[in-house]
Amino acid sequence: MKKCGENGGLLLSARRCNGMKQYETVIGLEVHVELATKTKIFCGCSTKFGARPNTQTCPICTGMPGALPILNKRVVELALAVGLAANCQINRYCKFDRKNYFYPDNPQNYQISQLYLPICHDGWLEIETEAGKKKIGIHEIHMEEDAGKLVHDEWEDCSLVDYNRSGVPLIEIVSEPDMRNAEEVIAYLEKLRHIIQYLGASDCKLQEGSMRADVNLSVREMGSSSFGTRTEMKNLNSFKAIARAIAGERERQIELLEEGRAVIQETRRWDDNKETSRAMRSKEDAKDYRYFPDPDLLPVSISEKWLEEIRAAQPELREARALRYQRAYGLSAYDADVITESRHMAELFEETAALCKSPKKAANWIMGETFRLIKERNVEPEKVFFTPGHLASLILEVEKGSISNQTAKEVFEKVFDEDVEPLAYIQAHGLQTVEDADLLGEVLDKVIAANEKAVEEFRSGKEKVLGFLVGQVMKEMRGKANAGKVGELLREKLRQ
Amino acid sequence: MRLLSLSAVELGDKIRKKEIGVEEAARAYLQQMKKQEPKVAAYLTVEEEGVLARAREVQKGIDEGRYTSPLAGVPVAVKDNICIEGVRTTCASRILENFVPTYTATAYENLERAGAVLLGKTNMDEFAMGSTTETSAFGITKNPWNPAYVPGGSSGGSCAAVAAGEACAALGSDTGGSIRQPAGYCGVTGIKPTYGTVSRFGLVAYGSSLDQIGPIGKDVRDCAALLEAIASHDPKDSTSMARQDTDFTKGLAGDMKALRIGVPEEYLGEGISPEVKAAVEKALETMRENGAAVEVFPLGMVDYVIPAYYIIAAAEASSNLERFDGVKYGYRAAEYEGLHDMYRRSRSEGFGEEVKRRIMLGSFVLSSGYYDAYYLKALRVKALIKRAFDRAFKKYDVLLAPSAPTTAPRIGESLKDPLQMYLGDIYTVAVNLAGLPGITVPCGLDEKGLPVGLQFIGDCFQEKKILQAACAYEEMRGKWRLAFEREEV
Amino acid sequence: MYVVKIDDKTMESVEILAQLRLSDNEREKAREDMQKMLDYVEKLNELDTKGVEPMSHIFPVNNVFREDIVTNGDSREAMLANAPRQKEYQYLVPKTVE
């Protein structure tokens, strides 16, 4: 029944199936990424997130008369790093252009961007789809400046402008219209995010706006080789919103076409609460940006030597790392994938593995306890701050049998939250396993005496009951015993 | 010799020798301002108390050996499109009527470091758009030679101030002749340096690829000294150039023997007034007599410089002036309904007619469908103009031209026909398009007693050549008396 | 040759691009001036510029950079001192759409 409208509501799907037409969605993305520089693209103001309004502004990033932009070299380097990682051609000679439009978040009323000669072009990324690997083309990557932030003031029914973000460096990554559904879009965005995070070029947070994706979408009849009219969707703050917006816009366009109406080329704003979009239009919005080369900025010329330096400094990216973990450490493809999800986690894993000389155990601790605590404490993987040596020494202690697995987990919480030095902590809290045979003997005797029924069952051959008895001993010992050893001793004692 | 008649270099010398006090010099100029301003109206902002306080501070600095530059203690005026921290900077526009910058233009900072004493900010055409200083929102500056005539523009206030003895020297800016043309009309000396020699940081932009700040003085030596002081490689201006040869005062004295001078034949042809032509030809004759090889030659491209210039300048201006929107600074309309109405009212009420005219022309030539035909075409023509000059400078050391086809027009005559006014920039705009240095030196008076300016044009970075040639010409020409000095005779 | 006729509609769209608003009288004068100017600059079409690169910058200088070092501190009071209207250290503007 639900064959042709996989994204759509039931009613529409039913009608369309009757109508016999099948539609294909064609999607291209414009992704803006805030680069992780210390200063803005054209001035020495800090880019730190969350500062009080307008405390990170100067005559340049507020468009004061007579102020002039000076290009931050680091921006060019990060843009090149991303371009190389995305298999792009590099324009060895690139320039900045002015994009002219009036809006209060744009203090000069022109944005400095790159239209005619962007820094990178013609690249691609490979994504995994249900049907296998697929290449998504990258049309271009260009550098530009971010706008300020506008907030609506309910009290006075006006808007307030904060220019802290004005001039924060951005790269805009424009894909080819190569994606066909939300899954591909999200796979592409994930891929992009991983690359950029691994490069250290940005933290790529959709919620904080350091990564923003605008979706260009059109539909066409299945089999058609020409494109339909596309719309551009803005205000997409999560992967979920992106998926919903794609479904919604696809439906909207198909409905228009089915009704014999035309799709209008326009920019639409997605409202994720209402799950609808509406056209952003204004008659004052002339949509003629009058791009021309910025006379205040000189061209950037990229030498082979400079490019070579950037190439040489490229870190190992996620896929290469995941493959290496499989080959060198014998991790499963799944584990390697999960651990490399975040570059920071991968680095924690690798350092821990090197120190404890047991990659498997290190992987288990990262995949198990670390991820559990990340979830429980609701922190971002990037913000986890414990020292890999601390986890490694916990692993080694367990291996030596000087603490129990249970104790290790408890101590690890302290390591995770406060990065305590585990050996000192174990010592201070007397958590090491008790090696004293007399003491252990006493406890064993006590447990045997208190559990006559279980003892009898064991003696009559019910091996399983041993586990229960070990548990009782461990409880009595508050975990400070080596469970394996306790089992052996119990077995010995009960056979006597 | 009277204090006001001393050149900046002479005054600086006497101040260093303690023959004249800095405050005494400042007071003399303030006094002259009181006398002349009612007639000339060269200034927009003067803060007497501030001037005297600064004079005392500089005197102290000289006494303590902190200021050693030849210009220490010299009272100067600054065009009102050059930002100075804490001093109102209006660009002679309503839209910036109350704007007080929190930063200082590098050019002025350099001059301040040399110990110059700021007298005030001078009138100009609004945003430097105009050739007469009549487009100022705050009144018309009069030509000190005859107040019925304009001082030229857009640095009309700065040139008139020097001519009237109201400033010992001044800073102006030149996008298409805005120093050289008014210097010619006012009978003073003014130089537009090679693009990139003086930082544009803090200069309110008109046409960014053409704008340069330059000095206006009583003679060539003063201009050389001021230029030496203000030129710098500024990390705050990407287009500023690293030059090692900014010791412009070195080797000024010399003769014209073996100097190859080219005079574009087009510059003496159609459109030039007979009196200007006669004055220029007389100057050429003098130079020939003194050993220069003067040759009239076809430069080429002359018919295309005005169209190319106005397209490029208007396009850049339309974008540069977008920031004036009533949000961050400047004028905001009293009443409006919504954001875009606020923009449109503020800008329509805040800008004058000529500025609006150029903004609209610039917006049009950049708009989609016209960009290639107008803007790119103009940039291609600019490349051809540059080539024409490159060819000329293979044959000649210096080119000579009038600074304008006529002497100063009467007040009220020019604005009636903007295109006609633009055509008056024929001898100056090409220099900006090609990035060249050019200096205007007075070379005579017409029948009405108005000065004629002679322009020396050099190849890029050849300021020294034109300064030397102009200096040598000055000597041949003999002592030039400024407007206020003739009045007093 | 390519001759552009400037009509009232063109003027209105240019006014929107430039964010200006002219009265009818002003517009007619401005239209005439612009027409005259555009007719005049037609002159450029006499020149064959095929193969000539548009020249933005006079000198072939490239790569003017600054290092990624914070040099500016908090100067918001000075920055806001010229604002026609402000509230809570922000620039106050008429409500923006959305």
Descriptive report:
- The complex is a heterotrimer of chains A (496), B (489) and C (98).
- Chain A has helices spanning 10-19, 73-85, 182-199, 239-258, 304-313, 318-329, 333-339, 343-356, 359-377, 388-400, 405-418, 422-428, 437-450, 452-459, 465-476, 483-495, and strands spanning 23-34, 71-72, 89-90, 93-94, 97-100, 110-113, 120-129, 132-145, 149-153, 158-162, 169-175, 211-221, 231-234, 267-271, 276-279, 292-293, 300-301.
- The relative contact order of chain A is 0.09.
- Chain A contains 16 helices and 17 strands.
- With 489 residues, chain B is of the alpha/beta class.
- Chain B is built from 16 helices and eleven strands.
- Chain B has helices at residues 8-16, 22-40, 48-63, 106-113, 156-163, 180-186, 220-230, 274-289, 305-320, 339-350, 353-366, 371-395, 418-423, 429-433, 463-477, 483-488, and strands spanning 43-46, 75-79, 117-122, 169-174, 189-192, 212-217, 260-264, 293-297, 398-402, 438-445, 451-457.
- Chain B has an eleven-stranded mixed beta sheet with strand order 1-3-2-4-6-5-10-11-9-7-8, sandwiched between helices.
- Chain C has a domain at 8-44: Histone, subunit A, CATH 1.10.20.
- Chains in contact: A-B, A-C, B-C.
- The interface between B and C is large, with 69 and 54 residues.
SSE order of chain C, as H and E?
A: HHEHEE
What are the low-pLDDT stretches of chain C, counting only 5+ consecutive residues below 50? none
Strand content of chain C: 5-15%
Biggest pleated-sheet summary of chain C: 2 strands, antiparallel
Largest interface, with Cβ-Cβ < 8 Å?
Answer: B-C, 69 and 54 residues
